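Supplementary Text 2. Reproducibility record for the structural model of the 227-residue chain.

All settings were left at their defaults, and a single model was retained for analysis rather than an ensemble. We include the record here because the model underlies the residue-level annotations in Supplementary Table 4.
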Amino acid sequence: MKLTRKSGTLMMTVLVCSLLMSGIDAFFELSYITRSLIKIMMFLLVPMSYFMMYREDIPNMKKLFVPKRKDIKLALLLGIGVYIIIMIAYFIFRNWIDFQGIKDSLMSGVGVNAENFVFVAIYISFVNSLLEEFFFRGYAFILLKKEIKPVFAYVFSSFLFAFYHVGMTTSWFSPVIYFLAMLGLFIGGLIFNFLNDKCENIYSSWLVHMCANFAINTVGFILFGIL
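Retained model, structure tokens:
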């Protein structure tokens, strides 16, 4: 695979931002708001800097936000299925995972609690999911696959999507569950890429991502005694 300056810039910025964000989540006890602001700078402003350098890609960037009705219908059905599967998995495996430890980690590590969880859940579901889809599926996949072999773009963006979650979840699970969670994120990244591959926008994966976050936030509401 021959790298060009453009593909090299794309890959390097995605790699550095993913590593830095994972490291910040792992080693720095920052508030959730502070972490979110840092993530916005990395996942939004860094790509915008790229588009300032390579203005010929601005039309491709704009296409990422042009929805197609038929793709959205399929994604919505898939998203509902994902929500159901995650909730079933929670009730099956809830005695195997230390959810109390996860709750304590959220409260002590980033300041998430029952009082602010509703606002955090809204942000995670709608804003954070869109930010991640723009960065990992739009910037790190759809644009990248125009410059290199699509198979590599699939694996590259999916692997870094999973790795980016390492820092925030490193103390949550036992080794076996942790490996399965990271594998699930990698496979999920591949599926998200597949959904967006033909339509060239990020709405399909964003809808499914939102539904997955709805399920995770439902578990959070249960943990914090809101439901």
